[in-house]
Specification:
Layout lengths: L6 E4 L9 H17 L2 E6 L3 H5 L1 H13 L9 E6 L4 H13 L3 E4 L3 H11 L20 E4 L5 E6 L3 E6 L7 E3 L7 H11 L4 E5 L6 H10 L6 E5 L2 E2 L15 H6 L4 H9 L14 H7 L10 E2 L2 H14 L2 H12 L13 H12 L8 H9 L7 H9 L3 H12 L6 H14 L4 H13 L7 H8 L1 H20 L1
Parallel strand pairs: 1-2, 1-9, 2-3, 9-10, 11-12
Antiparallel strand pairs: 4-5, 5-8, 6-7
Helix pairs in contact: 4-6, 6-7, 9-11, 12-13, 13-14, 15-18, 16-17, 16-18, 16-20, 17-18, 17-19, 18-20
The protein binds one RNA strand through β7, α6, β12, α11 and α17.
Length: 475
RNA sequence: GCCCCCAUCGUCUAGUGGCCUAGGACACCACCCUUUCAAGGUGGCGGCACGGGUUCGAAUCCCGUUGGGGGUGCCA
């Protein structure tokens, strides 16, 4: 291997969103660049769509920044557009023609098919190889695949050899003169002095073609590394249509970046030791392409969420409050926004923090604080209020709460005493109070919540619930 | 059709010939803790696809079978 500078390229196809599989590949490249002191080169594939929609490229840059691949980092270079090099692509093809590595072909797709059918074979039969055709409108330039074997040395998979006899003379320049992606890719890699090509496994079968191009162009072949793809439960490659694959979507649902990064890195690789939850610095330290798994990995949202919960709980409270902020100010928040009280939220925050797996669950835990009335869940309300003694407990608690010292311990003691009077443990006795005030059977610790809501509002809700349940019962 | 890749608990993985009675994580189940729900603690369930070799010894090496995935465009 040469001692040229280490340059890792990441070339996502711009499709209007950032694929989680792409995110993992980016992370691999990024970790490597950081550890080796190399460069992460972001190259945007040139498509008509992408050219017309600059926001797509911006989306990729934003998503990369979110997972920690920041464009302002000295190890980051780009973004570059492939189209910048179009003239170079054609020039390279012409060099190949002049050196005899490529030749012109006048066969149309239909003619190729007919010939194949007649021969009982498949694909192009290299018919034009020695016909000595020159460049002309309607002529495509094809690469003359040499005899022999092409061995792709892959850091993840070892040596993979391909019999060149199975590779047909592929097109370099279309009959309209434009270069194909395969060629553009190789020429760009050469131009950008890319040392390592780390990409998804699906590209492995095309790699011998690219390698032959590097060789024919007289350039050093980069180090290849084909990493396994991410699949869905059907073991199919993740696709936009079938699966939830946009990292933006996970971000919007309240997955925190560190959790996403950590989880993505455990797909196809594992840090040393018995814990998978490790900081990025450890990843940078330990990640080796040679250790990457060979088989496809299932993107398990449950496990992602579990990681996310751990990361959320590990946050300092202030950071948690800040992270939850966008979800509390969202358009679809259940309360009228003028009623939201940041100070109040800061006080419940620690109680909520250890209960959520995703940030978007936060509003559901605190809505009762900011809604004018308890958000009653009818099924829960009926079930709890129909239980024996519920109404008695409510009545007794109302009487006591009218005068009791307003702090959690005192409120709890009241509930405890009232429950005892009716032969109920605290677990049961707190249920009607909880449903009356918060509307649900589950939520943050009750008495702490009551303190925050305030005596007047708590009493008002308790009385309202008693009236409602009593009324329903007498019908 | 042809070519290539892959194969350890349900899932993600550790494992590179003896440390494997196969380890961890997520999920699931039970119990403990408990003010609901979580969190936390303890324990449990559960796997080397199959068949042949090689070897004193194989999850680990070789061959085959089966099963998955991907590629094979004048798409990117």
């Amino acid at each position: 291997m040469s001692d040229r500078p280490l340059r890792f390229r990441f070339a996502p196809s711009p499709t209007g969103f950032f694929h989680v599989g792409g995110a993992r590949t980016a992370l691999y490249n990024w970790a490597l660049a950081l550890r080796t002191g190399g460069t992460f080169v972001l190259r945007i594939e040139d498509t008509d769509e992408a050219r017309n929609r600059p926001e797509w490229t911006q989306g990729i840059i934003d998503a990369l920044a979110w997972i920690g691949v920041r464009a302002d980092d000295p190890h980051f270079e780009g973004p570059y557009f492939q189209s910048r090099y179009a003239a170079e692509h054609i020039a390279a093809a012409q060099r190949l023609y002049k050196s005899g590595h490529a030749y012109y072909c006048d066969l149309t797709g239909e003619q190729i098919q007919e010939r194949a059918k007649a021969a009982g074979a498949q694909g192009y039969d290299n018919h034009s190889r020695d016909r000595g055709l020159g460049p002309a409108p309607g002529h495509a330039l094809r690469f003359r695949v040499p005899d022999g074997t092409t061995v792709v040395t892959d850091l993840v998979r070892g040596d993979v050899s391909f019999d060149n006899a199975n590779i047909e003379d592929f097109v370099l320049l279309r009959s309209n003169g434009t270069p194909v992606f395969l060629l553009a890719n190789v020429v760009d890699d050469i131009t950008m002095r890319i040392s390592h090509v780390v990409r998804a496994e699906e590209h492995l079968p095309n790699t011998p073609k690219q390698q032959m191009l590097f060789e024919a162009l007289g350039d050093e072949v980069p180090v290849w590394a084909h990493v396994p793809v991410l699949v869905n439960e059907q073991r199919k490659k993740l696709s936009k249509r079938r699966d939830k694959v946009a990292v933006e979507q996970y971000r919007d649902e309240g997955i925190v970046a560190d959790a996403m990064v950590n989880y993505l890195m455990t797909l196809g690789w594992a840090p040393r030791g018995d814990t998978e939850i490790v900081p990025w610095t450890t990843v940078v330290d330990q990640f080796r392409l040679e250790d990457v798994t060979h088989s496809p990995a299932f993107f398990d949202i449950k496990k992602l969420t579990a990681f996310n919960g751990e990361y959320i709980r590990a946050l300092p409270v202030d950071d948690f409050v800040a992270a939850a902020q966008p979800f509390l100010a969202a358009d679809d928040v259940p309360w009228p926004c003028e009623r939201f009280d940041p100070a109040l939220f800061e006080q419940v925050a620690p109680l909520v923090q250890e209960r959520v797996g995703r940030l978007d669950e936060v509003p559901g835990y605190v809505d009762f604080l900011f809604l004018p009335d308890a958000p009653i869940d009818d099924a829960a309300f009926t079930k709890v209020m129909d239980a024996p003694k519920s109404l008695d407990i409510l009545a007794d608690v109302i009487a006591a709460y009218d005068t009791v010292a307003w702090h959690a311990d005192a409120l709890k003691d009241v509930a405890l005493a009232v429950g005892e009077q009716h032969g109920l443990k605290l677990g049961k006795a707190q249920a009607p109070i909880r449903v009356a005030v918060t509307g649900r059977t589950v939520g943050p610790p009750l008495f702490e919540s009551l303190v925050l809501l305030g005596r007047d509002e708590v009493l008002r809700r308790l009385r309202a619930a008693l009236g409602r349940a009593g009324g329903a019962q007498s019908e």
